[in-house]
From TrEMBL, chain A:
Belongs to the activator 1 small subunits family. Gene3D superfamilies: 1.10.8.60, 1.20.272.10, P-loop containing nucleotide triphosphate hydrolases. Subunit of the replication factor C (RFC) complex which acts during elongation of primed DNA templates by DNA polymerases delta and epsilon, and is necessary for ATP-dependent loading of proliferating cell nuclear antigen (PCNA) onto primed DNA. It is found in: Nucleus. This is Replication factor C subunit 3.
UniProtKB/TrEMBL annotation, chain B:
It is found in: Nucleus. GO terms for molecular function: ATP binding; ATP hydrolysis activity; DNA binding; DNA clamp loader activity. Its main location: nucleus. InterPro entries: AAA+_ATPase (IPR003593), ATPase_AAA_core (IPR003959), DNA_pol3_clamp-load_cplx_C (IPR008921), DNA_Rep/Repair_Clamp_Loader (IPR050238), P-loop_NTPase (IPR027417), Rep_factorC_C (IPR013748), RFC_lid (IPR047854). Pfam families: AAA (PF00004), RCF1-5-like_lid (PF21960), Rep_fac_C (PF08542). It comes from Danaus plexippus plexippus. CDD domains: AAA, HLD_clamp_RFC. GO terms for biological process: DNA repair; DNA-templated DNA replication. Keywords: ATP-binding, DNA replication, Nucleotide-binding, Nucleus. The keyword Nucleotide-binding applies. Coiled coil: none annotated. Gene3D superfamilies: 1.10.8.60, 1.20.272.10, P-loop containing nucleotide triphosphate hydrolases. This is Replication factor C4. Residues 1-29 are annotated as: Disordered.
């Protein structure tokens, strides 16, 4: 019994639900003798991984689906031992180099070298290269990215890289210009709704189109989240009704509550309470940038234009500092305090005008 | 047995042909950029003066220390590689040490590797007895990413080993090279390539790759999107050819990751915060790159007729700040929102 997301994941390039012309192009790419390095980018839940797995299947046949997990060990130049989880088949290996933090450079160099130096056993009809899939390339350190660019050229005859990123803003141009970049835009709401319908049909359920549309709307154009929500809906209440409540991710509600707290009162005492909430969010593993974006979105709702600008500019500033530092709570709190100060001043001025 | 002998015979007699097959097979995956890299300095597009000077140096057989600078894709690396090939012929490999930013290049490497390489004396004849220049060449590509300490370590080495070694530094920004180094080299500036020359070159490549590009329209587009960077233009054309099987204007935009012009316009004309929020969300959901938008926006703002100078100043300043923050890893949502607010405010008070 697996989740719908995994169960109904398309396995063939031709069976993808959207971006069909792109799928056709990818297929024709595979059929050419020459296969470039790929850089696949798009927001989460847009189907990057699905496309890549389909592509691998197209390249190597069903053998690429027999996966095994392995832990690999590396030693950094400073003699620190690190280990990292990899998922691999006979033809490819997938790794998430950001798991090891600042030592990602070692992992990339050693791993690619390892893979590249073992040649495929030469049998007819096989590709002469293996594939290395690197996740979250945009979060790699600059060092690692520079190391990548040399390795990419050096081992091009025996291995191909498929890089996955959420956005290419943080990928250095030298890598971008060495790869064939493939943009995977998030599916539109109608596309999500039609996928939901198709999945429900396969499960033998009937889904009212209003509900499908509402799930699609609240999923932020993230297909994975939409499918999970749909499954949660089914667990909560089946048969579906069109006015059924769509469960929202609880951290979203939590952030909204926090924002409401900040808006209700601006005082140091309240700030201390807000801190508790923020800590709780961080402890539960909600990424700080998501908290930041959520707070900004909620907080600016009842401000006028000039204030919105001010707040947005401060948010950008504090968020940037958060990236440079390593204690995110400080920066989120600083932003909250700043907002309180601005908002309080604004309220007092508005009251002053009234009297 | 018979078959074995037979195959042995064939392979020995037809050696040139099999190696020919092999080389074409090997050539197939080569990027066009490498495949069509100029072989001699006379093949270099544009850059008349530089080529002139290099040619005279080569004729005299002597080479000063060189410093090439200029925007990417203008032929700096190609020029020195071609010159090296002409100087050293088939012993290029032994005589040239090429280091670029992806190699380890801290002060330690300069002290050990470069210095020991530079100290070796070489003869003025080749193994086969023909004469060749009695020095070696160290090419430091992307020298502006070297640390100042590493550059400083280089200066004495450069002087002391002039007898046996010539250095060639290549960089985009000459201002990042420390003055003691620049004063030791003869400097050459590589100009951005002229449009018609780039197009001519692209046409030649397309012709020899047997790729249909139609009239010059698409190539013009390619040049526009790449702004005088021949390497980028070639890579874009090749990607487009691989992905779509033909080269079209839309395909070029897609493979180069450019943001469509109408989105840039939309961002500049956003009226209020809600609209901005929606725009930013959609923009990121469609997986366009924020840094690319900033780049295109900067060009658009500077050339925009409908903005006053004051507005341009305000927007450009914010653009610089946001671009810096993005580079250091700031979230795209935040930076775009911030910039968008500035644009709205600027539009409201001319």
């Amino acid at each position: 019994m697996s989740l719908w997301v995994d169960k109904h994941r398309p396995k063939d390039l031709m069976k993808l639900d959207y971006h069909k012309d792109q799928a056709v192009r990818l297929k024709s790419l595979v059929q050419q003798s020459d296969f470039p390095h790929l850089l696949v980018y798009g927001p989460s839940g847009a189907g990057k991984k699905t496309r890549i797995m389909c592509l691998l299947r197209e390249l190597y046949g069903s053998g690429s689906e027999r996966l095994r997990q392995e832990t690999m060990h590396f030693t950094t130049p400073s003699n620190k031992k690190i280990e990292i989880m990899t998922v691999s088949s006979n033809y490819h290996i997938e790794v998430n180099p950001t798991d090891v933090g600042i030592h990602d450079r070692v992992v990339i160099m050693d791993l690619v070298k390892n893979v590249a130096q073992t040649h495929q056993i030469d049998s007819a009809g096989q590709r002469e290269f293996k594939v290395v899939i690197l996740n979250e390339v945009d979060d790699l350190t600059k060092d690692a990215q520079h190391a990548l660019r040399r390795t990419m050229e050096k081992y091009v005859s025996t291995c191909r890289l498929i890089l996955i990123a959420n956005s290419i803003s943080r990928v250095i141009t030298a890598i971008r210009s060495r790869c064939l970049t493939i943009r995977v835009p998030a599916p539109t709401e109608t596309e999500i709704a039609s996928v939901l319908h198709a999945v429900c049909k396969k499960e033998g359920l009937s889904l009212p189109s209003e509900l499908a549309m509402r799930i699609a709307k609240s999923a932020d154009r993230n297909l994975r989240r939409a499918l999970l929500m749909c499954e949660a809906c089914k667990v909560q209440h089946y048969p579906f009704t069109s006015d059924q409540k769509v469960p929202e991710p609880d951290w979203q509600i939590f952030i909204r509550d926090t924002a409401a707290m900040i808006l209700s009162e601006q005082s140091p005492k309240k700030l201390a309470e807000v801190r508790q909430k923020l800590y709780e969010l961080i402890i539960h593993g909600v990424p700080p940038d998501v908290i930041f974006a959520g707070l900004l979105k909620e907080l600016v709702c009842n401000c006028d234009m000039s204030m919105k600008c001010k707040i947005a500019s401060y948010a950008a500033q504090y968020e940037h500092r958060m990236r440079l530092g390593n204690k995110s709570i400080f920066h989120i709190e600083a932003f909250v305090a700043k907002f309180m100060a601005i908002y309080k001043k604004f309220l007092e001025e508005a009251l002053g005008d009234v009297f | 047995m018979q078959a074995f002998l037979k195959t042995g015979k064939i392979s020995s007699t037809d050696k040139p042909s099999t190696s020919g097959v092999k080389s074409t097979k090997k050539k197939a995956p080569a990027p066009w950029v490498e495949k069509y890299r100029p072989k001699t300095i006379d093949d270099i597009v544009d850059q008349g003066e530089v080529v002139q000077v290099l040619r005279e140096c080569l004729a005299g057989g002597d080479l000063p220390h060189l410093l090439f600078y200029g925007p990417p894709g203008t032929g700096k690396t190609s020029a020195i590689l071609a010159a090296a090939r002409q100087l050293f012929g088939d012993i290029t490999r032994e005589r040239v040490l090429e280091l670029n930013a992806s190699d380890e290049r801290g002060i330690q490497v300069i002290r050990d590797k470069v210095k020991t390489f530079a100290q070796l004396t070489v003869s003025n004849t080749r193994p086969d007895g023909r004469p060749c220049p009695p020095y070696k060449l160290v090419i430091l590509d992307e020298a502006d990413s070297m640390t100042t300490a590493a550059q400083a370590a280089l200066r004495r080495t450069m002087e002391r080993e002039t007898r046996t070694t010539r250095f060639c530094l290549i960089c985009n920004y000459v201002s990042r090279i420390i003055p003691p180094i620049t004063s030791r080299c003869s400097k050459f500036r590589f100009k951005p390539l002229a449009r018609e020359n780039v197009i001519k070159r692209l046409q030649e490549v397309c012709k020899s790759e047997a790729v249909e590009v139609g009239d010059g329209e698409v190539l013009h587009q390619a040049v526009d999107t790449c702004g005088g960077d021949l390497r980028r233009a070639l890579t874009a054309l090749q990607c487009c050819q691989r992905l779509l099987g033909k080269i079209t204007a839309d395909g070029l935009i897609e493979v180069t990751g450019l943001v469509p012009e109408n989105l840039v316009d939309e961002f500049l004309n956003v009226k209020n915060y809600n609209e901005l929020e929606r725009f930013v969300e959609n923009f990121l959901m469609d997986a366009y790159s924020a840094s690319q938008l900033l780049e295109q926006l900067s060009e658009r703002v500077v050339n925009a007729g409908h903005l006053t100078n004051k507005q341009k100043c305000v927007i450009s300043e914010k653009l610089a700040v946001c671009s810096h923050r993005l580079l250091e890893g700031g979230a795209e949502v935040m930076q775009l929102t911030d910039l968008g607010c500035t644009v709205i405010m600027a539009n409201n008070n001319p």
